[in-house]
Amino acid sequence: MVKKRILFATTNPTKVARVRELLKHLPLKVLSLEDVNSFSQVIEDGNTPEDNARKKVEHHYDELGIPTIAVDSGLYIGRFPDDKQPGLFVRRVTGTGNDVTDDEMLQYYKQELNKIGGISKGIWITAIVLKTSTGNILSKTFESETMFTSQSSEVQTPGEPLNSMQINPTTGKYYSEMTPEERMKAQGARAYGIVEFMENNIDAL
After folding, report:
1. Angstrom distance (rounded) from CA 47 to CA 83
2. CATH code at position 25
């Protein structure tokens, strides 16, 4: 079976691996930006996850002419005060506009969680945007709940450090310690939404 090429607009190898795993049952060859030697930066100054994902697909589609997807998320932690909500700046927590390292990210969220008792429910708002071979743009946004704890796992996921601070309330298992199948179930709409969206729109590629 001939696989359709699709570009995933991210430089994060962990996210590339995760999306490849999610979509492995589809006739797709998921390319990363590194695969196509594209290292140009997109300014993520949108007001929603969809805004930022749309900027990425438009930029890289125009650059390379390959059907392109982007996935962006916002995070809201229930017990955080309004001025501490990550929102769209999950990794840009210093206020400088620059991404922090995995270790800096873990340290920040541990500190803030400890201030509110060490545990809190959270909500991820995730958008996926696709620009097709004909230049049409399709998108969907979905929400999924999670639980954060400041008592992090020793097992970390490079590129996705918050996996070691999220637990499944039913099993008490950390996301970073789960198999891909377990993590997909725990992430709910964050994972199943991406799969369903691509299944429904694969003919548009």
Report:
1. 16
2. 3.90.950.10
